[in-house]
Specification:
CATH class of the largest domain: Alpha Beta
Structural class: alpha/beta
Oligomer: single chain
Distance between the termini: 29 Å
Number of helices: 15
Largest sheet: 7 strands, mixed
CATH topology of the largest domain: Aspartate Aminotransferase, domain 2
CATH superfamily of the largest domain: Type I PLP-dependent aspartate aminotransferase-like (Major domain)
Strand order of the largest sheet: 2-8-7-6-5-3-4
């Protein structure tokens, strides 16, 4: 149940550690992670690598850092990095890709949740022919935030991998896709060279993300983590929260999806055609825990919800975002439903 009488749907990063998670964190054995001597961090990295089917992984403070390290691993100077124009690492990381690197981002349409294959293939072919810069990396995202948390299946992800260059998968909410598609993280990450996931979003841990891939790349990633100021010391205290989340909070993501579905149904009835990802969902791609939509007056709706004790946010100009998570229960959802139903035109 929401604390202080406020239903906070701005993001699934707002979750508080559960009491069992706090206990696991307080009891965690620690060491200096900079020297690879924190046993809890090591266990978390091994566990995540196992789940996504990669040889190795590294624990980083944030998903943005994980993505930026992946770009450094793959993106060579003077090359093109193909990325969906609405992907997180393109639009929501404060221009870090351009600031931190010497490659170009080649943005293609990703309105259906995945990069436009024809456009990506054209960039790859033009690079090989010497007309354009060579493509050093293709970036994908699952779930696709800007499409309302759309879950992308392994078959669609594999298409990009078939183009030749390495693939980095921004799987910040990868486990939401796992539950929605009734598959495994290993299957969804199978065609990506590197994959990043957050434990601090729907999984409910307080801090951190993990970047997995081949052992040699992860070893290099540790060097980049240090260069970016992300090397940590007795980080097992927070890593234990991530371990607990991976062991106990994956299956429960189905509850978040069901609650988001309830909100999505109300939004669809109140403002028909406004929800992002509706067309893709109608074709069988499931939506997860993000309800993103374009009401007639987004700022007015945020004010209305705030007066009702509900916090929401914007995903972009005119796009309201409601995100369900483990600190939101059925009563909170019904309270939000009532407020949405009573919203002015």
């Amino acid at each position: 149940m929401s604390s202080r009488g406020v239903v906070d749907l701005r993001s699934d990063t707002l979750t508080q550690p559960t009491e069992p998670m706090r206990q696991a964190m307080s009891a965690a054995p620690v060491g200096d992670d900079r020297y690879g001597e924190d046993p809890t961090v090591n266990r978390l990295e091994e566990r995540f690598a196992e789940l996504v089917g990669k040889p190795s992984s590294v624990y980083v403070p944030s998903g943005t850092m994980g993505n930026q390290i992946a770009l450094r691993l793959h993106g060579t100077a003077g090359s093109n990095v193909v990325v969906g124009r609405r992907q997180h690492l393109m639009s929501y990381e404060s221009g870090a890709a351009g600031l931190n690197n010497a490659f170009q981002t080649y943005a293609v349409d990703d309105s259906g949740g995945v990069v436009d294959t024809a456009a990506a293939a054209e960039a790859v072919a033009a690079g090989r022919g010497g007309f354009w810069p060579p493509v050093s990396l293709i970036c994908l995202e699952n779930t696709h935030l800007a499409s309302g948390g759309l879950a992308i299946g392994a078959g669609e992800l594999a298409v990009a991998a078939g183009l030749g260059p390495p693939v980095h998968l921004d799987g910040a909410r990868l486990f939401n896709a796992v539950i929605a598609l009734e598959t495994t993280a290993e299957e969804l990450a199978s065609t990506a060279t590197t994959v990043m996931s957050c434990v601090s979003k729907g999984l409910g841990a307080p801090v951190g993300s993990l970047l997995a891939g081949p052992a040699d790349l992860v070893a290099e990633a540790r060097l980049h983590r240090r260069r970016l100021g992300g090397a940590m010391r007795q980080a097992g205290v927070i890593a234990a929260g991530g371990l607990y989340a991976l062991d106990h909070h994956i299956d429960r993501l189905a509850d978040d999806h069901a609650r988001a579905g309830r909100l999505g149904d109300v939004v669809a009835g109140r403002w028909p055609g406004s929800r992002l990802g509706e067309a893709e969902a109608a074709c069988g791609r499931p939506l997860t825990n993000v309800v993103a939509f374009r009401p007639p007056d987004s700022l007015g709706l945020l004010d209305h919800l705030r007066l009702a004790g509900i916090q929401a946010g914007l995903l972009g100009p005119g796009i309201v975002r409601l995100v369900t998570h483990l600190d939101v229960d059925d009563a909170d959802i019904e309270r939000t439903v009532a407020a949405l139903s009573a919203a002015p035109d």
